[in-house]
From TrEMBL, chain A:
Recorded topology in the membrane: Multi-pass membrane protein
Single GO BP term: transmembrane transport
PROSITE patterns: ABC_TM1 (PS50928)
PANTHER family assigned: ABC TRANSPORTER PERMEASE PROTEIN, ABC TRANSPORTER PERMEASE PROTEIN YESP-RELATED
Protein name: Sugar ABC transporter permease
Gene Ontology annotations for the cellular component aspect, listed alphabetically: plasma membrane
Major localization class: membrane
SUPFAM superfamilies, sorted: MetI-like (SSF161098)
Entry annotated with the keyword Cell membrane: yes
TrEMBL record, chain B:
Main localization category: membrane
Subcellular locations according to the entry: Cell membrane
Protein name: Sugar ABC transporter permease
All residue ranges annotated as the ABC transmembrane type-1 domain in the record: 90-282
A GO term from the CC aspect: plasma membrane
UniProt keyword terms in alphabetical order: Cell membrane, Membrane, Transmembrane, Transmembrane helix, Transport
PANTHER family recorded: ABC TRANSPORTER PERMEASE PROTEIN MG189-RELATED (PTHR43744:SF12), ABC TRANSPORTER PERMEASE PROTEIN MG189-RELATED-RELATED (PTHR43744)
Record field: transmembrane: 30-53, 94-115, 127-147, 159-181, 202-227, 261-282
Topology relative to the membrane: Multi-pass membrane protein
Length: 313, 297
């Protein structure tokens, strides 16, 4: 083969690759690279959507970190969700995954029932839970009251609004159940048999056989859970709005995070600053904080699971 | 029967005391596991049951803590459909989720194929960027995007700013489908090429038929994600109720029917129903897709 035909061939294959990749190449430039750079630029300007953006140095950054009253409450709430909600979801998801591998009768029905809430559209599920946990007449407090148990005010009490959201998140555990179920079924049977011969108790078998085998999946569940918790938007926003009784139509100023900023999360700050206060510069700062956190955990996830980048041929 | 025992002295089915305890233990274990299973099933199922029962109560009863309707008001569902806007939102959701899914699948297939089966410089970098896009919270880039759609193209107040970008690939769908395509052995592709198929024909004739489960999974995931999307319609369509989707309109439904929990719950059931119906018809593809996202890395 002459160098000339080789060169033509190579050029042809480069063209072919570009053709197949072209939808994404355009998407990447227009819907990722450009807006990211633009957001960085806006974060150093004063801009309300009218006129032109005016450079103002680090003013927006200072404002968001030092004077914006919603920033630190949102950071604290996000941290709470990262610690408590992710922990509850992983432990409960693992428990349900274990349970489903032990169920021998009606497995299919149980699995479908356990999975179903994961599919409930978030707005509908949140609205449903605000009703179920409605302090006065909701069925949950009605039952708790009949049993003589305490009846918290759930979504209207700052101390219970995040636990109520956690119950909602734990209800939708189906994704984790499926992932854990697959991992648990992959644990080699011989290891359990060997452990049983050695007289290991059920707990010891779990601790020394199951856990070491599934620990990469647990890690995966934790890191993706953290990423999801940082993006947590629809449920806390809808819960806060519906529980407060103020459903803002367009343009109506609603203080976010009802009750008492307890359901305020990081992504809501971008909406609050940009689309309620029309301070695009400060909204860009909040967006970049979210970006840095999301990418840091994504990097952690990819370092842990190099498999995502395995060779493709 | 004692003679049988003599003939077969090693009969392990004989109910020795040790066996009886083992069998009793197994039975107790079965009962324990399935009781826990039923308890968990109640936790997952009861919220749906309570929502559904409340949706059938009269206006007055829905304000009490009763659990079961005294009269079954099926007319509540008619009232929801008669609410101004509800049918429009339904139509908008179908358009957004339906057209959006078709565009996602069409634009993501060639990209996923290239990332899975072509060798080219920058492939790993591209994959890394796809994963970064997949993990990017929508809120991060929303300000320039909103300004782009409102100031340059004047398309706010419609769902097009949400639909058009899907014609340029969706990172999650690309990633998921690429993972699936990796499982197709290269021998099939090589054989097609020996037979004189170009890359495009190989993709259409050989790869797509084998990739049906993967394509079904990304289509389902995308349909559900778009059906459930709240943030997108909130940003681009909130000014124009005629462009609202069900997920976005549902919240305002509660606003308009402050005290009518029964009607709000009927609307909630109507938003959940299509998703759950689709799931029952496509359960296998769905569960397969969830497994693909994480375990098979």
């Amino acid at each position: 083969m002459t160098t000339n035909t080789l060169r033509t061939k190579r050029r042809k294959s480069a063209l072919r690759t570009a053709a197949f990749m072209s939808p994404w190449l355009i998407g990447f430039a227009v819907f990722f690279a450009y807006p990211l750079i633009s957001t960085l630029y806006f974060s150093f300007t004063k801009y309300d959507g009218f006129g032109a953006p005016v450079f103002n140095g680090f003013d927006n950054w200072k404002y968001v970190f030092e004077n914006y009253p919603n920033f630190w409450p949102a950071m604290r709430n996000t941290l709470w969700l990262v610690v408590v909600m992710v922990f509850c979801r992983v432990v409960f998801g693992l428990g349900i995954g274990l349970l489903i591998t032990k169920i021998k009768t009606g497995t299919g029905i149980f699995r479908t029932l356990f999975y179903l809430p994961y599919l409930a559209p978030p707005v509908a599920a949140t609205l449903g839970f605000v009703f179920l946990l409605n302090p006065g007449t909701g069925p949950v407090n009605a039952i708790l009251g009949d049993l003589g148990l305490p009846t918290p005010d759930w979504f209207t009490d700052p101390a219970f609004s995040k636990p109520a959201l956690t119950i909602l998140a734990v209800w939708g555990i189906g994704d984790l159940m499926v992932i854990f179920m697959a991992a648990l079924l992959d644990v080699p049977k011989e290891q359990y048999e060997a452990a049983e011969l050695d007289g290991a108790s059920a707990w010891q078998r779990f601790r020394f056989v199951t856990l070491p085998n599934i620990s990469p999946i647990v890690m995966f569940a934790v890191v993706t859970g953290v990423i999801q918790a940082m993006q947590y938007y629809t449920q806390p926003l809808v819960a806060g709005k519906v529980a407060s009784g103020i459903i803002g139509n367009s343009g109506q100023q609603v203080e976010p995070g009802f009750p008492d900023k307890s359901t305020l999360t990081l992504p809501q700050l971008v909406y609050n600053l940009g689309f309620q206060r029309f301070d695009y510069g400060s909204a860009a700062v909040a967006a970049l904080v979210l970006f840095v956190l999301a990418m840091a955990f994504t990097a952690l996830l990819m370092r842990r699971r190099g498999g995502l980048l395995q060779a493709g041929d | 029967m004692s003679t049988t025992t003599l003939e077969r002295p090693l009969n392990t089915d004989a109910p020795t005391p040790a066996h009886r305890t083992a069998r009793r233990k197994a039975a107790l274990h079965w009962i324990g596991v399935h009781s826990l299973g039923i308890a968990a099933a109640l936790f997952f199922l009861l919220p749906f049951v309570f929502l559904f029962l409340t949706s059938l109560m009269s206006d007055a009863q829905a304000l009490t803590s009763d659990l079961v309707p005294r009269t079954w008001e099926w007319g509540n569902y008619v009232k929801v459909f008669e609410t101004p806007g509800f049918l429009t939102w339904w139509k908008n959701s179908l358009l957004y989720a339906g057209l959006g899914t078709v565009l996602t699948v069409l634009s993501s297939i060639p990209v996923a194929y290239a990332l899975a089966k072509f060798r080219f410089r920058g492939r790993n970098l591209s994959l890394l960027l796809v994963i970064s896009m997949m993990m990017l919270p929508q809120q991060v880039i929303i300000i320039p995007m909103y300004l782009f759609w409102s100031k340059q193209l004047d398309l706010t107040g419609t769902l097009w700013p949400l639909i058009i970008p899907l014609a340029f690939g969706d990172a999650f769908s690309i990633f998921l489908l690429r993972q699936f395509l990796l499982t197709i052995p290269n021998e099939y592709l090589d054989a097609a090429k020996v037979d004189g198929c170009g890359e495009f024909r190989t993709l259409i004739r050989i790869v797509l038929p084998m990739a049906k489960p993967g394509i079904a999974a990304i289509a389902l995931f995308q349909f559900f994600a778009l059906w459930n999307d709240y943030f997108g319609p909130q940003i681009y369509a909130s000014d124009n109720p005629a462009a609202w989707t069900l997920s976005y309109g549902l919240e305002s439904f509660k606003g308009a029917h402050q005290t009518n929990w029964n009607l709000t719950m009927a609307a909630t059931v109507l938003v959940m129903a299509p998703v759950i119906l689709v799931f029952f018809f496509a359960q296998k593809a769905f569960v397969e897709g969830v497994t693909l996202t994480g375990v098979k890395g």
